[in-house]
Amino acid sequence: QVQLVESGGGLVQPGGSLRLSCAASGFTLAYYAVAWFRQAPGKEREGVSCIANSDGNTYDADSVKGRFTISRENAKNTVYLQMNSLKPEDTAVYYCATDTLFRCVSYEDIIATDFGSWGQGTQVTVSS
Q1: What's the rounded Cα separation, in Å, for the pair 48 and 28?
Q2: Where would a tag sit more exposed on the chain, N or C end, judged by fewer CB atoms within 10 A?
């Protein structure tokens, strides 16, 4: 069974850090580009970051550049999202996603792709 499972969310104070994990089962995540999305209450889903499978290139939304870092650990079949200097506006449910047609060749590639595989999401709340 193909599955993506996010973890690592929680409550953190402004300025704090969290590391989210996206663990895959049933397939080898190293062969796929992966994206992170987030969705805050009452807002549209937003692409956050992506990482390519071929060259490891990454692309980020302007809103998280310099604060968030996406990476992958192929031995653990996992992609991470390290989030530093968190702000209240980062509060959202965070999802990872992949698709056989997704290459992550630009940030716009996240927006243009119709992702076929999604995790269930993990809640991140930034509040004092």
Answers
A1: 22
A2: N
Whole-number pLDDT of residue 1: 79
- SS (HEC) of the chain: CCEEEEECCEEECCCCCEEEEEEEECCCHHHCCEEEEEECCCCCCEEEEEECCCCCCEEECCCCCCCEEEEEEHHHCEEEEEECCCCHHHCEEEEEEECCCCCCCCHHHHHHCCCCEECCCEEEEECC
Low-confidence ranges of the chain (pLDDT < 70): none
Strand pairing class (122-126; 10-12): parallel
Q: Is the distance from CB of 40 to CB of 104 less than 8 angstroms?
A: no
Distances (CA, A) of 7 to 15, 24, 78, 100, 128: 20, 12, 11, 23, 22
pLDDT at 117: 95
- Which amino acid appears at position 17 of this protein? S
